[in-house]
């Protein structure tokens, strides 16, 4: 659905445009149909610029891309027809009603039955009762919901969500997140930029960590495994020092550490090795209370990636 | 056409919800129609109708054009020369108010990016925004001119003065040149609006489009210029060429990327 090859954007800045600022550097990625892709990165990393390029709003300086089967730069109008965008700021027409706002965009997207589509999304996002109210009287969360409706009014194949829950209260964030999950079940392709790593972990099939260039790209679980491996904790009633060496001797077990009454073991395939380790410990006289896994959050992975990139640049 | 109609509809829905814009659009035309009618009323009753035109103390260049008229008629026509220009100024002022806000307003409310992300083409966007500004300006100008003509009839002006008001040169000026000037003012205002980041700056800079017409007004006031059919025809041709050139240039220089990324 989205395929980029060496996509690059360089802005010329300064009074005489003498300075070049590389916003996006050689971005190559593919997003499959029906996938929810999370594009993570710090402020100023080039996420919005990437979204703007992929929606045909700004031209790439180099590289190529295909969005919804259309060539970027050559078929931009078709791209815009087939994608929906939720911009960072809702940017609604505040003096107009919710219904009028959606009607305008339904007409601009050439929606065949405007009234039906407008009514469908007003109801779906819980805005039906307020449809005749001006958007200026809406809360931030309601505006965001209306902006989501606007992005979907023409039933796009691909949805670009730029920071969809930024600045929303927890309740409004949850409403938007639930709606994204619903869209996911409908099989729409979603390209989402976010700072909210917890949200990315819950919603995204794959994430790309990005800072001018793509630092890494995978599913949150694979990234975790690649970066930190998997650590299993064996909680014991009491711990004997000899059991450390016993577990370390089992194939696949690495970095065995004793912490209080626990053994912390790095394992590549805990599902395979755990029974073997438990059996060895029990035979040695240990009483295994329970077994758990230390899960690194996406936030740790993100911070590790971004900080090591910054250290590399320094 | 659907996109253009939608943009016009959207612009009007927004503009006509703004009390201040409505006030400007109402008060100014009322003032422009009231001023000449009051002047005509006053001169109608105070000037001696039998005095020859040469005795009216008008600029020599203008007095020469008054042959066969009385001093009263000539004075009224001299005054009308200036006030009729106000009717041509109206289609410049009203669209400028709307068009100056059209792009920068969307930038400040952050609604421009979602709008530019739709399949609307640049020409459709500019046409929609432009027509949304030009149409009210032209309609109001025509309407106000109609009210003025009715007012003149009610004042009982002499046939010579009435025929001057409805002369081909002024009819061309108000019915043809006015809308062309309106197009020029609108394109200029939209261009300015797309380049600045503050609606106030957009309005100030856009209002400078009125200066050439002010120069014409001063030239008429000083008796250096007599507006006749030749002047109007030349003005129409020149303005139409300028409008066409600006229209072409506007579609080239209106760039989505620059507007989105270089306005802060």
Task: Describe what this molecule looks like in 3D.
The complex is a heterodimer of chains A (314) and B (264). With 314 residues, chain A is α/β, with parallel strands linked by helices. Chain A has helices at 47-54, 76-82, 98-108, 114-124, 140-152, 170-185, 197-203, 220-228, 242-248, 270-283, 298-313, and strands at residues 2-13, 19-31, 36-40, 62-67, 70-71, 83-86, 158-162, 189-194, 206-211, 213-218, 230-236, 253-259, 262-267, 288-294. Chain A folds into two domains: 2-218, Rossmann fold (3-Layer(aba) Sandwich), CATH 3.40.50; 226-294, 2-Layer Sandwich (Alpha-Beta Plaits). Chain A is 38% helix and 29% strand. A six-stranded mixed beta sheet of chain A has the order 6-7-8-3-9-10, sandwiched between helices. Chain A has a four-stranded antiparallel beta sheet with strand order 2-1-4-5, covered by helices on one side. In chain A, helix 3 (98-108) crosses helix 4 (114-124) and helix 5 packs parallel to helix 6. The radius of gyration of chain A is 24 Å and the shape is elongated. Chain B has one domain (2-261). The longest helix of chain B has 34 residues, at 122-155. The relative contact order of chain B is 0.14. Chain A binds chain B through residues 11, 52, 55-59, 77-78, 80-81, 83, 85, 87, 89-96, 100, 104-105, 107-110, 147, 150-151, and chain B through 2-3, 5-6, 9-10, 13-14, 17-18, 109-121, 256-257, 260-261.
Just name the CATH architecture of the largest domain in chain A: 3-Layer(aba) Sandwich
Let me know the largest β-sheet of chain B: none
First and last CA, distance of chain B: 32 Å
Going across the biggest sheet of chain A, name each strand in turn: 6-7-8-3-9-10
Q: Please count the beta strands of chain A (DSSP E, at least 2 residues each).
A: 14
Helix segment tally of chain B: 13
Q: How does the overall form of chain A come out from the CA principal axes?
A: elongated
Order of helices and strands of chain A: EEEHEEHEHHHEHEHEEHEHEEHEH
Number of domains of chain A: 2
* Protein structure class of chain B: mainly alpha
Secondary-structure class of chain A: alpha/beta
Poorly predicted ranges of chain B: none
- Total count of strands of chain B: 0
CATH superfamily assignment of the largest domain in chain A? P-loop containing nucleotide triphosphate hydrolases
Number of helices of chain A: 11
Mind describing the biggest β-sheet of chain A? Answer: 6 strands, mixed
- Radius of gyration of CA atoms of chain A, rounded to a whole number: 24 Å
- The chain-level mean pLDDT of chain B equals 81
- Taking pLDDT < 50 over at least 5 consecutive residues as the criterion, the unreliable ranges of chain A are none
User: Helix-strand pattern of chain B, N to C?
Assistant: HHHHHHHHHHHHH
